[in-house]
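Input chain follows. Return structure tokens only.
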Amino acid sequence: MNNHITYMQECIALGKTANTSKHFPVGALIVKDNQVIGKGLGHVLSPKDTVLSAEIKAVQDALKNTKSKTLKGCTLYTTHEPAIKCSYAIRHCNFDALVYGSNSHTNQLSSNIKTMLTKKVAKWKNPLKIVSGVLEKQCNELLKKAV
């Protein structure tokens, strides 16, 4: 749990950086063997950029840095519960675990945990381990400060 707190603090710092740059205040990290291999900041609040999110940017960064097609053995840390498009990317890349702070229901967003845990997509194999509520209060505060 100690590592979860340390990495979530880094995600919160990324979220604060994103917020000061007029981006959505979300931060994400990808960790493998206690090394950060990918980072992502929240996206610009604009109809021109509706696809990229902190989680997707972190996935792209990690895949580029590792020159891999999968993120097996990795944990994704993010300040809030991932949206549906991020949930798909997380499962598709075969993450071992997801750790997030803020729950979607707390911020009146829809939950995607069923997508994360589904066994219906054969190529996704086993569901990943999910840890929620890490530094939840700080993550909720971060989202309240959205520009």
